[in-house]
Amino acid sequence: MLTLLRSRARVPYPSTVRPRCARVLVGVTVVVGLAAAGCGGSATTGPGTAHPMESPAMPGHSAMPGHGGMPASGGMPGHAEMPGMGGLPAGDGLAAEASGLRFVPAASTLPANQPTSFRFRILAGPGQHDHASRLSPPETHGTGTANGDGTPVTAFKLDQTRPMHLYLIRSDLTGFQHVHPDVEGDGTWTAPLQPVRPGAYRVYASFITTDASGADVPTVLSQPVTVAGSSADTPLPPASTTTTVDGYTLTLASGPTAKAAGTLTITVSAGGRPVTDLQLYLDTYAHLTAFHEGDLAFAHLHPTGTTPGGKDGGPALPFEASLPRAGNWRLFVQFQTADVLHTAAVTLPVG
User: Fold this and answer.
1) Which pTM does this prediction carry?
2) What are the start-end ranges of the H helices in 144-216?
3) What is the model's pLDDT at position 7?
4) Could you give the angle at the alpha carbon of 159 between the alpha carbons of 65 and 262, nearest 5°?
């Protein structure tokens, strides 16, 4: 089991750093690929910046109150694309290293059935110091790790109001968590995790850095982690066009096919009535994270555009989805009402 590591003192998030992620307009469609859709801000965060976390959904899909460079997504005619959308990461989120950066957890195990802290660094590998030298203060250069794996990257572009997003999923597609870690001056990130049951998991780090030319480098990296003990897998719920959470019903329509762009529309209702008071969560009206059954490939979708006057959203949330793998995807849809974050889960077959 992993011994919990004590977090160091954190420095409050500077008030001068303000994200440029525009707010979304419900009814706007965005082309997304298999990876985390990066909404990069113009500000860059550095050592000591701290951000609050929202409580993720617990195993079993219950919700609690509480998200290399492919071309940027194209907006629909007549709709403004969200400023700062720097493009989508290449790949499927299953690599531990890409674009000269490596995701290095402090440990590969987690304790069972208790809250814990997951600590990690993003390292620039040998001969790949563009990220670190451009973004890190001189005193962090060359610190690396005990085995010389590289130099820690200590500054990141804001991605949907946060410099780092961490996701956790069990191999049976339960236990979803999405948190926002705090960073320390040496480039070590600490993510508070809710209790997890024994089993095999995968943890994903989603972030944006810049290269030597100043171009954004949106990246999703992942590593396997293990929780010791024995616990039976939960069968994947059958595919459905509806799911419920906290009294809300989400209805899916027009699902995508593999390797072809298609519109996925999610409509939110409560008590048979359309919901029109969706609040902005991380500057969007909904976050959609998806994991592929079997290999745990990662996808992140969300609406895009601008919203005048910060109006509430709903009931329809359209996503233009392009998923390169056929098979079952487990979708986790996060949306907020009355200052409460809801997380709904549904199985989507892709042909």
Assistant:
1) 0.72
2) none
3) 35
4) 85
